[in-house]
Amino acid sequence: MKIISSETISNAVRYLIINSSVNLADDTYKSLEAALKLEISDAGKNALEQILLNAEIAKMENKPLCQDTGLAVFFIEIGKDIIVEGVNLTESINEGTKRGYLDGYLRKSTCDPFTRKNLGDNTPAIIHYEFTDGDKLKISYAAKGGGSENMSKIKMMKPAEGKAGIIDFVVETMEIAGPNPCPPNVVGIGIGGNFEKAAILAKKALFRKIGEPNPDEELAEMEKTLFKKINNIGTGPMGFGGICTTLAVHIIKHPCHIASLPVAVNIECHSHRHGEIIL
Q1: N or C, where is the chain less crowded by C-beta within 10 Å?
Q2: Separation CA 95–CA 252 (nearest Å)
């Protein structure tokens, strides 16, 4: 058995939050550079140049990439041979979240849904757990901003609509989203499961590194098709027009009920603040 202290977990979470808020991940930065080379719209090129410059300034001055520092979202993989010593795992993650947002001087965005009173420390975090073999604890983190999250959608489709219907739904979702989710976006898609499972899959799909191929050949082909169709919408970087509306399309599927075809689309902004640590 491997013993990991709750303090170690909290410190790792704190680091992830502060680092990803300030330093744009390499996969995202490289995809934005590639988009700049491909973009044909002058206004779109200018927007991409400003996005890249913003990333450089954030890194140099140790300041957040965006004023919306998001809600803290975690996907946690827990090896069966791990024991957490101290407070429980959920408390450890929330403590690290609190420290990250306070110590990093990041905007706190959690509030009561009715009174809208800010809770002050960006907790509780949104945490998804998965149990695995081994003695590793993998912490994957993303800061999910309101602008992109608000344009995300889920639809309980008819099974007969099939892949063509899924493609139409995703493209329509991105057309309606327009400039609101601060494109160029990363688009996560969850297919199957049930209502909540599809939404979680769509969120999880965002964590795959940009440029990393989908191991499922059928889904990889769908991603290519959607990538082309979304970039033909014409929204372009920050809505200024062009051919770079999305940086990547990532799909995960799961078995579903014979009478259902749930599909969720979760959109991420160009900052795409994410990171992972394995303890």
Answers
A1: N
A2: 31
